[in-house]
Amino acid sequence: MAGVSALTSCESGRSYAELLNDEDKAVNRFLVNQKVVPYIPADSVFQTGANAPYYKIDNEGNVWMQVLSLGNGPKAVEDQTVYFRFLRYNLSLYTNSITSLPSEGNLDNMAESPTSFRFKNYSLPTSAQWGSGLQMPLNFLPLDSEVNLIVKSQFGWSNEVSYVQPYLYHIRYYKSMI
Hints:
The chain has 178 residues and is α+β, with helices and mostly antiparallel strands. 15% of the residues lie in helices and 24% in strands. It has a single domain (2-174), classed as Chitinase A, domain 3 (Roll), CATH 3.10.50.40. The protein has three helices and eight strands; from the N terminus they run H-H-E-E-E-E-E-E-H-E-E.
């Protein structure tokens, strides 16, 4: 009986598999209106801008990246503090426009301090709390880059994994606190 309760969401009575299916549908509903490339370019030369495609970062399609602008800073090195500003939108609420979705984050509020993580150092709670998805673009892009990033729950914020909600992030990465 304990196994059954582990597979069922307490909030909605839906199974975890059903929630994952809903999450996939929400991401697909968004991506159907976008250009998509199901791989990272071999030469790591990305199209950039608001009309750039979304690139699948991981094999399972849990993280997709659209490069809005390519930074001219250095690439992040392991355990380096990386600062970032972001807005995020719950893709489960997406119908046909991002502008209609409520957002949260600190991208547009310079009075708020930027957030940070230690690149590839998930042993620190301050890094692990953001999940691995937010760090993935830095495997390919230099600092000072700006991306839109689709992150499914398994790769998102550690305290929200069980909600099974995909998010679209608009992120800018920085070398220093801005």
